[in-house]
């Protein structure tokens, strides 16, 4: 009984925290988006957003349309995402039935992004992929804290695009902090730069693992086969998935 009340309180705090992150991010976007169909700024006015040519090019494609949101969201994002460390503890203690590997992958990758990348590299603060990453994270977590059945359906459906958006943004934010590698300059990389490069490379298989897990959970929770319509009420005997 105590564990149940504790988990309910934890989920409520987490949901409120992520809803606030989403609110701050959306507010920053709306405040910046004065001209709905025009670029928010022009490429020649950008501050440095990356440390290599590829990242600078990718950033230039969307930066005119996606404003930075770090200053508006960081003070809330950092503690809210750090709180998620307890999700691994919950699995280890048997309080929830989530698979440990997928929980560790999701929590650790986000903590690396928050404290290992964003907190240490100021150029990520004006990176538009930070904004898209935050939108994917906060939307996923707000929907995850579901109660009505239609939110359960959203949770196990929106991951189709939120997971690639989030994981892709994470990888591109990390990529923007890796030094230039052209013309053999990778030979002068530090061990940290090599570690970040390896981390970016494993993002795709990591996404595949998480994607496969969510596909399995979608079939388990929403069911499939005759009588299970799109958006229909999930089965009563569903297991809680994290």
Summary?
With 242 residues, the chain is mostly helical. The protein contains 9 helices and no strands.
What does this structure look like?
- This protein is mainly alpha-helical.
- It has 9 helices and no strands.
- The two termini are 20 Å apart.
* Total DSSP E strands: 0
The overall pLDDT average reads 82
- Rg, nearest Å: 19 Å
Which H/E pattern describes the elements?
A: HHHHHHHHH
Query: Tally the helices: what do you get?
Result: 9
Residues in β-strands, percent: under 5%
Biggest β-sheet strands, sense, barrel: none
Give the uncertain stretches in residue-range form.
34-47, 225-232, 236-242
Report, as a whole number of angstroms, the end-to-end distance: 20 Å
Helix content: 55-70%
The secondary-structure class comes to mainly alpha
Shape: globular
Structure keywords:
65% helix; disordered C terminus; mainly alpha; globular
Set down the secondary structure blueprint.
Blueprint: H1 2-32, H2 53-62, H3 70-83, H4 85-92, H5 100-118, H6 128-144, H7 149-175, H8 191-201, H9 203-222
């Amino acid at each position: 009984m105590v564990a149940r009340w504790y988990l309910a309180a934890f989920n409520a705090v987490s949901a409120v925290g992520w809803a606030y992150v989403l609110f701050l991010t959306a507010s920053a976007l709306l405040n910046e988006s004065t001209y709905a169909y025009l670029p928010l700024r022009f490429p020649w006015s950008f501050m440095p957003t990356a440390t290599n040519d590829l990242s600078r090019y990718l950033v230039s494609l969307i930066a005119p349309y996606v404003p930075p949101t770090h200053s508006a969201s960081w003070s809330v994002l950092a503690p809210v995402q750090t709180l998620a460390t307890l999700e691994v503890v919950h699995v280890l203690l048997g309080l929830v039935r989530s698979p440990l590997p997928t929980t560790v992958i999701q929590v650790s990758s986000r903590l690396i992004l928050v404290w290992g990348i964003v907190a240490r590299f100021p150029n990520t603060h004006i990176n538009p992929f930070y904004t898209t990453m935050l939108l994917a994270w906060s939307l996923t977590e707000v929907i995850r804290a579901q109660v009505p059945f239609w939110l359960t359906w959203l949770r196990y459906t929106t991951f189709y695009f939120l997971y690639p958006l989030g994981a892709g943004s994470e990888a591109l934010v990390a990529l923007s902090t890796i030094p230039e590698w052209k013309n053999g300059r990778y030979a002068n990389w530090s061990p940290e730069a090599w570690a970040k490069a390896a981390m970016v490379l494993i993002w795709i298989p990591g996404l595949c693992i998480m994607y496969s897990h969510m596909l399995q959970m979608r079939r388990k929770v929403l069911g499939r086969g005759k009588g299970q319509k799109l958006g229909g009420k999930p089965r009563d005997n569903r297991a809680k998935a994290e």
